[in-house]
Design the sequence.
DNA sequence: TCTGGGGTCCTAGGACCC
DNA sequence: TCTGGGGTCCTAGGACCC
């Protein structure tokens, strides 16, 4: 039995793009980029061939095409990614039950107690890489380390198709010159603040006076110092156990900025339906509705929320609540993006409606939901319809978990 | 033809109650 | 007719992740 934990972090390389290349041999070896539908969209993932031209995640589509005119644009397909991800995660479960799915293409494994069966962590990593490559044609980068923080750092050190091991005795040397922003949890802003304190590397962060960090950052100051030292006691927590979603929301960037109330309401209705339907599928209802508006200048926006007396999850109630918030607001500019979110959630057992008409309404909604489940989103609505080009982007996000409650793929 | 969409957690300040 | 403190709930906004 080793005297420290052995954690593994697995990160699929260019996941969505790899899945697409695997599904369509004509795309193999070529620069491709996966995007959402809709007009104003950005690159979600690109193949390594495309990255060689400077194509990056988050770039506007036109910008990516400027970098790489022969770039092949593929509209993302959730179902493919969700399916592939689930099967890969199942494969990982053969090596340990301790798996924490972090996103659709990333997971941590605690293999401390698997070594008596499989030998070494490196061997598990090689087996998994080979099997994932063989079954799905996808490469991954794996990091092995004494904790989750370092395993994630390690998996980032060699891409694509890498395997990096950080042994306890190597931690100090590796962190000494490692830029702080490489640590998961230190983003752009934290980096900027730490840089202002003349802290650039993990080594410097780990040696920093804790009181100085606490004065500046409050409670997370001591956590930051630990991160700089590569200390992380957080366990690998399998997701199913306590994975209750806290909010359900959808947003969309409109194809064109809009000012007319009627236009805004159409989008709000659609968003409310998307939120309501997903909430009902999860069996949750919520008391707090948030309306999010981003204006034409991109930089100004607001989120306004309202908490109701009772929990709701029916689309028209969500819609009404969203309108009520909208009506408390002056819109100083045309609207670029709208979002509707339901939070303050309650998980409900299937309950009988108390009144006949409530029952009818609820049955009608179930019927619509089942038609939508079979034939795709937005075929059946009870309100004004948007033109088909206006359905917004087909939502795809690597942050979705394949099996978890965050999976919004159409079944 | 600029700049997506899905989440989580944290904090500060105000309302309200005892 | 001036002044407490603790607790809970709520809102707005920001940082972080993929």
Sequence:
């Amino acid at each position: 039995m080793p005297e420290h934990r052995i954690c593994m972090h697995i990160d699929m390389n260019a996941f969505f793009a790899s899945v697409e290349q695997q599904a369509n041999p004509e795309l193999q070896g070529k620069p491709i980029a996966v995007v959402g539908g809709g007009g104003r969209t950005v690159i979600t993932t690109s193949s390594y061939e495309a990255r060689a031209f400077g194509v990056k995640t988050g770039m506007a589509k036109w910008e990516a095409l400027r970098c790489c005119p022969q770039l092949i644009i593929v509209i993302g397909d959730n179902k493919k990614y969700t399916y592939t991800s689930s099967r890969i995660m199942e494969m990982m479960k053969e090596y340990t039950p301790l798996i924490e799915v972090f996103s659709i293409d990333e997971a941590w494994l605690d293999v401390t107690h698997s070594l008596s069966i499989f030998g070494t962590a490196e061997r598990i990593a090689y087996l998994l890489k080979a099997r994932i490559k063989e079954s799905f044609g996808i490469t991954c980068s794996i990091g092995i380390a004494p904790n989750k923080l370092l395993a994630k750092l390690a998996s980032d050190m060699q891409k694509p198709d890498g395997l990096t091991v950080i042994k306890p005795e190597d931690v100090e040397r590796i962190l000494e010159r490692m830029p702080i922003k490489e640590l998961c949890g230190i983003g752009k802003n934290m980096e900027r603040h730490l840089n202002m304190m003349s802290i650039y590397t993990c080594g410097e962060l780990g040696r920093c006076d804790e009181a100085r960090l606490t004065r500046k950052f409050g409670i997370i100051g001591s956590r930051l110092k630990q991160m700089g030292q590569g200390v992380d006691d957080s366990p690998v927590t399998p997701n199913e156990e306590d994975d209750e979603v806290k909010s359900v929301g959808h947003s969309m960037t409109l194809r064109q900025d809009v000012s007319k109330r009627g236009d805004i309401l159409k989008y709000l209705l659609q968003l409310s339906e998307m939120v309501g339907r997903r909430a009902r599928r999860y069996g949750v209802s919520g008391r707090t509705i948030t309306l999010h508006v981003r204006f034409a200048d991109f930089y100004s926006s607001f989120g306004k929320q309202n908490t109701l007396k009772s929990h709701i999850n029916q689309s028209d109630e969500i819609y009404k609540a969203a309108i009520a918030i909208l009506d408390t607001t002056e819109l100083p500019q045309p609207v670029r993006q709208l979002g509707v979110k339901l939070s303050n959630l309650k998980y409900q057992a299937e309950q009988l409606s108390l009144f006949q008409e409530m029952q009818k309404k609820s049955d009608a909604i179930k019927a619509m939901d089942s038609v939508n489940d079979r034939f795709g989103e937005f075929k059946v609505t009870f309100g004004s319809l948007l033109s088909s080009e206006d359905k917004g982007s087909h939502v795809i996000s690597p942050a979705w978990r394949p099996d978890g409650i965050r999976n919004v793929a159409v079944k």
